[in-house]
Amino acid sequence: MQKTAHIIGAGISGLTAAVRLANAGFRVAVHEATNQAGGRCRSYFDGATNLTIDNGNHLLLSGNSHARAYARAIGSEAGLVGPDRAQFPFVDIKTGQRWQIDLGDGRFPGWLFDEGRRVPDTGLMDYLKLAPLAWASEQTLVAKSIPCEGTLYQRLVQPLLLAALNVDPPEGSAGLAGAIVRETLLAGGQACRPLIARDGLSAVLIEPAVKFLAERGHTVQLSHELRSLTTADGKAGALNFGGEDVIALGEGDVVVLSVPPRAAAGLLPGLKTPTEFRAIVNAHFRYEPPPGAAPILGVIGGLVEWLFAFPNRLSVTISNADRLVEMPREELAQKIWNEVCEAAGISGEQQPQLPPWQIVRERRATFAATPAQNALRPGPVTALKNLFLAGDWTATGLPATIEGSVRSGDRAADLVLAAKGS
Ligand SMILES: Cc1cc2nc3c(=O)[nH]c(=O)nc-3n(C[C@H](O)[C@H](O)[C@H](O)COP(=O)(O)OP(=O)(O)OC[C@H]3O[C@@H](n4cnc5c(N)ncnc54)[C@H](O)[C@@H]3O)c2cc1C
After folding, report:
1. Which of 375, 417, 413, 414 lies closest to 394 in space, CA to CA?
2. 318 CB under 6 A from ligand 1?
3. 323 CA distance to ligand 1 middle (Å)
4. pLDDT tens digit string along 260-306?
5. Atom of ligand 1 nearest to the CA of 12
6. How big is the CA angle at 120 (ends 114 and 126), to the nearest 5 degrees?
7. How far is 312 from 285, CA to CA, in rounded Å?
8. What is the value of pTM for the model shown?
9. Among 3.40.1170.60, 3.40.50.1820, 3.50.50.60, 1.10.530.10, what is the CATH number of 4-42+201-275+376-421?
10. Could you tell me which CATH class the domain 45-82+195-199+276-367 is placed in?
11. What SS3 state is found at 403?
12. Which protein residue's CA is at the shortest distance from atom 52 of ligand 1?
């Protein structure tokens, strides 16, 4: 008889496991607590800007092999778009200086040897000082591993690690930072081409997965929150969705618990999980980007960190943003817009006071990628033989990213299949 895989949580990690297990012959039932799939990676219509926006601007890189394989599996890889070369323009809005890092398109990081392609006013020696990150342990602080000052740090290392770790880089885990550096900068330009879901996160990474499952007879049930589970003989025995809504698990049925850490700890008492989180703030402005605007612009010297140009919209990402969570929204929007105008070169008549805008503050965007929090990340195996964990906060060896989330879903699926085989 066909076995059922119950996937709890329809974020990227859960959907990854769902698609893998559907392809492997399981009957898949996804249960999502909210009324929309996607978790922290989703789009929605926003009345203030009259646009469909993402909860956060998400950047993938061409070296995110698991995330791209997931998109390929659901038929939407072509929706991840970006420039042909790994070029990253930057502006310092304090000094007005602009530059572009050009990582090329090969495996060999030849850009390090070319003054015209690396960060201005940096030398090869500055880059060699980053080498300890490549072998640093997850318990080491970034600050203990590499210099956290100087031109290279301010213009490249700080923006890169801040975006990847979502903590102030010196307090971050050097091992997690090292994984990012190994898989991006050290893997050459071929791994660093920026990729964006131009038509929106839901359209590219979520809805195609839901459609893929539905077309094959699997289910994705929204507003279906797992409240508790019962256990027997070292296994999950039944899933309780409230009241009479209880699903008894048959022999060979499995559960992939792909919910955020707090929810997982509530469902599995005694489970060790990260306890500290950091906010990410995104600001969206309804404004046609100036002609020739870079799809992604690194911004130094202000609040804004990354500026994304979409059709009809300029959007900003600010990581490690707990300090901005209580700031009045109007004040924050105006401050960010002023910086956007500086960065994008919008001035004079082209510069409206403040176009239609939206501020999205994800308070618990990611776990804090510090050594102490990283040590709290559990692996995928639990005390229950038929229940596996997935999620960007599990021990993936990466910070909380889509790539980490997809890897966790793949790993949970691998374990389910290995258990089935044995
Ligand atoms: C603003 C922002 C910007 C980001 N930018 C980037 C970026 O540029 N690049 C990048 O790679 N990553 C980025 N990330 C991180 C990325 O979004 C996450 O790593 C990824 O989406 C996490 O997916 P997940 O499946 O692990 O968890 P989640 O998305 O949290 O999914 C968990 C799901 O479980 C559901 N759930 C919870 N409890 C229950 C329950 N009891 N029963 C059923 N369902 C339940 C939740 O509703 C949710 O849908 C960003 C995140 C944010 C918030």
Report:
1. 375
2. no
3. 22
4. 999 999 999 999 999 999 999 999 999 999 999 999 999 999 999 99
5. 25
6. 75
7. 8
8. 0.96
9. 3.50.50.60
10. alpha beta
11. helix
12. 365
